[in-house]
Structure formats: C-alpha cells, structure tokens
C-alpha cells in the first residue's frame, strides 16, 4: 500500500527546508532554533525516504499517525516562517520556535521508535538506532521557557533569569523595550505579557539612568512603559502616568488596555499631568540640567541630544515601584463634572498649576488578566518626601525647603483630621458616623496617599462595624469607603485581617442594590491577592452570596459579582465551590448576547471548565449551543474563551465531543483558526486536530 502520510510528511519537510534556505531572518535566537529544527528533520528524512522507496512499504497505523502528527508540526513551523516579520515580538518568536522544536523532537523520536520495530535488515536497524540516539541526546541550551518560568516565580531585584532573558532577546535600548511591549501585547499571550511587565519593573528597579554626569533620574520620573525620563507626562484612563510619546505609540498600535494595570481603558484621552511635569522641571533646574529639545520631542531624541555618555546604566540602583492607583466607580459618583483643585508647586516653578480631576457617573470597570477597578486620574505612584530631598540639595534651593515645610503642615493637619474621623466612627452618634464615613469616602476617591494614611490610622475596623448598621445610607457610605481603601495594596491584607469577609457578605445579603454592588466590588478588589482569594473562597457564604447577586442582581451588580467570582476562580480549589453554588446555570443564561454579559460569563466559564463538575454543569445547562454561537459571532475575547471551554469539554469526554460536533462547531472553528487572536487560533486548531484524531480512531476501530 502506498504510504500516503509518509509521502505527505516528506513533501512538507522539503517545502520547509526550501523555505528556510530562502528565508533571511536576521534575528539570531530565532535563527538558531530554526537551525535546530532543520537539523532534526535532516536526521529523520533519509529513513522516511527509505520507507517510500521500499517495494513493500510497511502499512502501519501507528507510523501513519505519527507521521501525520509531525506533518502538522512541520506545517506550523512553515506557517510561522511565512508569517514572520520585523514587527513580530522577539519573545513570542523564540518562545514559539522552542515549542515547535520540542514537538519536532518528540514526534521524530516516536517515528524512529516505530521504524526500529518495523526494520528487518540489521544495517537498517543500526542506522535507525544511531538516528534515534542522536535525536534523543539532542538538548537545547537552557530554554527561554525555563528562564520565563523561573523569572515569574522569582520576582526579586536580583533576578538573574530576567537579566538572561534581556540579553537573550537583545533588549539593548529603551526603544527596543517599548517595541517589544507593543508586539507582545498584540500576540495576547498572558505569560509573555506578564513577563514584559516584570522586565519593565526590573529595569526601573535595577538600572541607573543618568541624564547628566553623576546625576541619575529618580525612577518615579521615568515612564513605566519605556523607562525613559518623562518629558511630557500624561494620565490615561486607568489613572497611570506615562510619557506622551510612549503611550501614544502604544495607543496608535490599536492597544486599548493600560500597559501597567492591564485594565481596559474607558477612553483614550491623554490628560497632562502638570504636577509631575512641574516636579521634573524643578528637579532638572535644581541639578542645573537643560534639555535642549523642542516641545513634543520624544525621550529617545533627548538621549541623542545629551550624547551617548549621558544615558548610562549600572546595576547599583535598587528601587521598588508598585502600582495600585485605581479608583472605584462608586467613588467618583460622589462628585460631578470637573472638580478644580489648587496645588502649590515649589517657587522655582513660577506659578500655581490647576489640576482637573475627572469625575463621571458613567465610569465603570471590567476584569482583565490582572483586573482592577477603573480610575480616571492619579499622579505618580510614589514620590519621596521633599524633606529628605532638601537635606542633599545646596542651600540656595530654598524652594524645596519651603515646599517641605508646607507639606509637613498639610500632613499634620491631615493626621489630626483623620484621627477625629476615626473617633467619630467609633463613638459618634449615628449621624456623625455616617458623616465620617462619607468624608473618608470623599478623601479616598483619587488619593493613593490618603488611602494608605487613613488605613494606618485605624479607620478599617470601625468602618466594618458600620456594615451592620440598619441605616442604609450609613451602610452605603461605609462599604464605599472600604471599597476605596481596598484599592491600596497596603490595605488589602489589613482589611481581610480585620475580619471583613463576614460583614461584606452581610451587606450582599441585606443591603440595597448600590451597597450590594459595592460590596461585591470590594470582594473583587481584595481577591486580587492570592491569600485573600483563598480566605474568601473558604467562606461558602461569600461564594453563595456572590452567586445570588450574579443571578438576581442589577446589571451592574451581576458584572461586579462576575468579576469577583472570576478572580476567586483563579484559585483551583474555588472552582468546584463556585460550581456547587449553582453559578454555571446563571452563566449559561448570560451567554445570550442581548444581556450584555457574554464576555464576562464565558471568561468565568473558561476557568470553571477546568474541573469535571464544571464541565458537567455546562453541558447539563445547555451551554454547548450557546458556546458554539459565541465562537461564531462573539467578540475577539469571547470567541477565544468559548473555544477554550469547548476544548476542555472535548478533551475530557468523547460524549461531549460528539455533542459539540452535532452543534455545527467545525465551520466557526475553521474561521477562528484563520482570523482570531493568536490564542484563539491555537485553541481552534487544537480542537480541529482533536476532531481529526477522534475520526481517525473511529475509522480504525471500524476496520478492526
């Protein structure tokens, strides 16, 4: 019998080798890995030629199946080469090549093992054995995948794996880092996006950026996206500050999420951060640094104007920069329109600046990979005390001393005011308690510093006690103040340690619509932290209350509950608990496009399909037809998650696989495999490959 699968494989290998010979990829790490793939295929090819040339070629189903698997991998490798472009993420390119190389090695070993069993002549046996041994002994250098896994596990300042990745990928300039950030975001691979975020933070912490000889740029004046000195700092919808040139390039590439918090940007307006700009100008003036550039020039052009020796990197600088500046929807409802705030800037900046803080009742929030509640405006994450700066400056810098004195006065007043508020929360009348909670809510709308300060002054415990108040207004003000405080990373642990879970569940069960929404949003905010996810998940009442809101709440309440449950479902033990609380029934209902909940519902279902109970409930609840419909006509993210759920169903149950096929899944999956996001394409291709394998197995069983 003519060995068709072997012939097809040889044809694919020849096409691939020809394409490699014609290709001119200049990026060495990818070249090296492609060369390794070529090496393995060249080892195997002579033995496949012998099979085809044999007068009585072996008709072996295992060999045919193994050749089909390798044929699929080689075609994937060919498609990668054909699609390869200078704009491709270097990280993704190397990562993908390593995966392909590993698959080629695995399939080649399987084929040589089968050929060894089929060989009759001793000379042929010896040749196959040598080939098999060489393929088996082939080892990659320490792979990028290993470095990535180690780097994400070991997120410390002394992270050798991150340094190795930076060297391996060749991120030699700030512009390289910006381009790679944009390219990785377009690939939509969570692991690589997290890695690039770690690299940016690592560079901010460990690399010393000099703008003049002996003068280093403070990290809080550097753009979190490009790590360069911010020339024109602007605020995006998430509340984060970036240099205009860098974030504009990010947005111009069609990216609609914050590079730092990962939340979807509700708008793409860039609001000038006059406070940070004034501080940078004052710092430059204090250090006698003049930037001879035109307005609107980017940071890289500044570097060129300063000369190659002015931007020096050393390994001696360590600085921790953490971001938690996002603002709750309910907080901004306290204000209306624009609130004008006067801020006194040091005398060296000649005039006062007016900061406009946007407030909007329409502000909402959604979950993403590391979701946070939306914020409209904030400034830099952390600015050191001006008092400490004054000690190291020349005596003629009186402006800093004046600013330091003013700041101390403000801080003293703030502390006194906070202590009074906490006392009112503890011992005041009902009216005073409500007013104090409302004032804390107002103070924590946009201020990162106020959240931390008020949390440390002991406001959390008395606010929690107010959640049991029979006065709905008091309950609402208290839960919203806690929502604002929970945004701070410092406060998340303190709130849970103070026993917040039960009071928040009480509000979910007894409050009005607004308080229920904000209680769910608070649980969502707290569940960003792994330990908190575990503690909230261990409270069955919390999960049941969230599921109840998911099924019976307002649209906003449903979204808040879905976001909180999504975070909780990241912890494996919580998946079964959420399923047992009957969440799947409501989530399947939400797959109806008319309910505006498809993306959130299918994202949570993708997590819950990771456990057997979840898969059973999805099928039992009639989810398969709606999932196929989502693959066909949903959003990009919705299609990806729907395909992920279907893949889990099919891989774990032939019965479910048959059901998916009966619902007509193949046409939309074929379309998705060609035009979806990178992850969606992979899921669709896995499903289609699984369908082919299942069909082949049934045909083989029928013949036997």
TrEMBL record:
The keyword Transferase appears for this protein? yes
Query: Origin, by domain of life?
Result: Eukaryota
Q: Give any GO molecular function from the UniProt entry.
A: ubiquitin protein ligase activity
Q: Does Transit peptide count among this protein's keywords?
A: no
Role played: Functions as an E3 ubiquitin ligase.
Name the record gives this protein: RING-type E3 ubiquitin transferase
- What are the residue boundaries of the U-box domain, all occurrences included? 216-290
Q: Which UniProt keywords apply?
A: Repeat, Transferase, Ubl conjugation pathway
Pathway membership, UniProt: Protein modification; protein ubiquitination
Listed InterPro entries: ARM-like, ARM-type_fold, ARM_PUB, Armadillo, PUB2-4-like_N, RING-Ubox_PUB, Ubox_domain, Znf_RING/FYVE/PHD
Pfam families assigned to the protein according to its UniProt record, in alphabetical order: ARM_PUB, PUB2_N, U-box
GO BP term, pick one? protein ubiquitination
Which Enzyme Commission number(s) are listed?
A: 2.3.2.27
Q: Where are the ARM repeats?
A: 458-500, 541-583, 582-623
Q: Which reaction does it catalyse?
A: S-ubiquitinyl-[E2 ubiquitin-conjugating enzyme]-L-cysteine + [acceptor protein]-L-lysine = [E2 ubiquitin-conjugating enzyme]-L-cysteine + N(6)-ubiquitinyl-[acceptor protein]-L-lysine
Q: Which residues form a coiled coil?
A: none
């Amino acid at each position: 019998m003519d060995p068709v699968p072997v012939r097809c494989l040889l044809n694919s290998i020849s096409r691939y080798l020809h394409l490699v010979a014609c290709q001119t990829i200049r990026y060495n790490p990818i070249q090296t890995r492609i060369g390794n793939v070529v090496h393995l295929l060249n080892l195997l090819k002579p033995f496949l030629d012998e099979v085809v040339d044999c007068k009585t070629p072996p008709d072996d189903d295992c060999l045919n199946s193994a050749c089909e698997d390798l044929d699929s991998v080689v075609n994937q490798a060919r498609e990668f080469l054909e699609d390869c472009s200078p704009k491709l993420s270097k990280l993704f390119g190397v990562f993908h090549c390593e995966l392909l190389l590993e698959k080629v090695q695995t399939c080649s070993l399987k084929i040589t093992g089968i050929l060894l069993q089929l060989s009759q002549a001793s000379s042929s046996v010896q040749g196959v054995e040598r080939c098999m041994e060489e393929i088996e002994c082939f080892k990659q250098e320490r792979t990028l995948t290993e470095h990535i896994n180690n780097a994400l596990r070991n997120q410390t300042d002394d992270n050798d794996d991150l340094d190795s990745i930076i060297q391996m990928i060749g991120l030699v300039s700030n512009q390289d880092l910006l381009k790679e950030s944009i390219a990785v975001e377009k690939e939509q691979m969570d692991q690589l996006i997290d890695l690039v975020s770690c690299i940016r933070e690592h560079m901010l912490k460990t690399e010393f950026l000099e703008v003049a000889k002996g003068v280093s740029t403070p990290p809080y004046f550097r753009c979190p996206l490009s790590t360069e000195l911010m020339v024109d700092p602007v605020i995006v919808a998430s509340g984060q500050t970036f240099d205009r040139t860098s974030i504009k390039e990010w947005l111009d590439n069609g990216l609609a999420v914050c590079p730092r918090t990962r939340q979807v940007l509700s708008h793409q307006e860039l609001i000038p951060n006059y406070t940070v700009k004034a501080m940078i100008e004052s710092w430059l003036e204090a250090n006698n640094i003049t930037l001879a550039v035109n307005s609107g020039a980017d940071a890289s052009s500044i570097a060129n104007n300063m000369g190659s020796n002015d931007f020096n990197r050393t390994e001696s600088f360590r600085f921790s920069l953490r971001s938690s500046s996002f603002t709750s929807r309910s907080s901004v409802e306290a204000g209306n329109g624009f609130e004008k705030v006067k801020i006194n800037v040091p005398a060296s900046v000649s005039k006062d600046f007016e900061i406009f803080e946007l407030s909007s009742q329409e502000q909402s929030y959604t979950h993403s990979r590391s979701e946070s509640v939306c914020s409209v405006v904030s400034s830099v994450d952390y600015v050191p005390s001006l008092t400490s700066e004054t000690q190291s400056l020349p005596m003629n810098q009186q402006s800093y001393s004046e600013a330091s004195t003013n700041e101390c006065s403000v801080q003293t007043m703030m502390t006194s005011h906070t202590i009074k508020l906490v006392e009112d929360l503890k011992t005041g009348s009902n009216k005073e308690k409500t007013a104090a909670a409302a004032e804390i809510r107002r103070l924590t709308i946009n201020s990162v510093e106020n959240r931390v300060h008020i949390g440390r002054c002991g406001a959390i415990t008395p606010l929690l006690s107010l959640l049991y108040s029979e006065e709905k207004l008091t309950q609402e003000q208290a839960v919203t103040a806690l929502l604002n405080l929970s945004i701070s990373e410092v406060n998340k642990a303190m709130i849970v340690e103070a026993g917040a879970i039960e009071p928040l569940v009480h509000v979910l069960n007894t409050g009005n619509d607004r308080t229920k929404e904000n209680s769910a949003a608070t649980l969502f905010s707290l569940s960003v932290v792994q330990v908190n996810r575990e503690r909230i998940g261990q409270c069955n009442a919390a999960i049941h209350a969230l599921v109840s809101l998911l099924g019976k709440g307002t649209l906003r309440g449903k979204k808040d509950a879905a976001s909180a449950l999504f975070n909780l479902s990241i912890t494996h033990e919580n998946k079964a608990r959420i399923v047992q609380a009957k969440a799947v029934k409501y989530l399947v209902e939400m797959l109806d496009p008319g309910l505006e909940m498809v993306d959130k519902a299918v994202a949570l279902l993708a997590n819950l399909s990771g456990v057997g109970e979840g898969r059973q409930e999805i099928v039992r609840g009639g989810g398969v037809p709606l999932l196929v419909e989502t693959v066909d006509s949903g959003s990009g993210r919705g299609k990806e998650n729907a395909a992920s759920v279907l893949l889990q169903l099919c891989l774990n149950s032939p019965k479910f696989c048959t059901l998916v096929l009966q619902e007509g899944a193949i046409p939309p999956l074929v379309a998705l495999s060609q035009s979806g996001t990178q992850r969606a394409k992979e899921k669709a291709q896995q499903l289609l490959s699984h369908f082919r394998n299942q069909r082949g197995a049934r045909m083989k069983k029928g013949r036997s």
